[in-house]
Amino acid sequence: MKTAAILILVILASACVSQQLVKQGDTVEVHYTGQFVSGEVFDTSRDGSPLRFKVGSGQMISGFDAGVLGMRIGETKEVRILPEQAYGALDESKRVMVPVDAFEQNGVTPVVGETYQTALGSGRVVSIGPDGVLLDYNHPLAGETLIFEVTLVDIIS
Predict the structure, then answer these.
(1) Domain check: are 27 and 55 in the same one?
(2) Fewest CB within a 10 Å sphere: which of 55, 83, 102, 153?
């Protein structure tokens, strides 16, 4: 009879562990696929190792942190993140027109879509025209609503 009681306790303890919910401060591992509202995938961990991070530590965008709270190991859910909880709204003041000759003086031919380091930081070329080169210093995902399919792989602590 004691053996049966111990077995029941072990089964109940195992069930409690598997029902653990993610909370602030937990270190977790997740697999994810990130896509735009259009359905275009911009990033995934599914073909590699899971992403490990500490929830609420600032390692992730706030919407991703909030999205994993309360998840159980093995659970998959869709997390929709507005720009304010991701990389912010597009800031037009971070789009700067630079003369083409500023590039040419450094032996660089600007290319649309390429990113260049300047005194202002990392700027992506949006367009090239007679007025110069339009550099965008916003994060590439600024202004985007992001949709993540997240699977909780493990809760480390």
Answers:
(1) yes
(2) 102
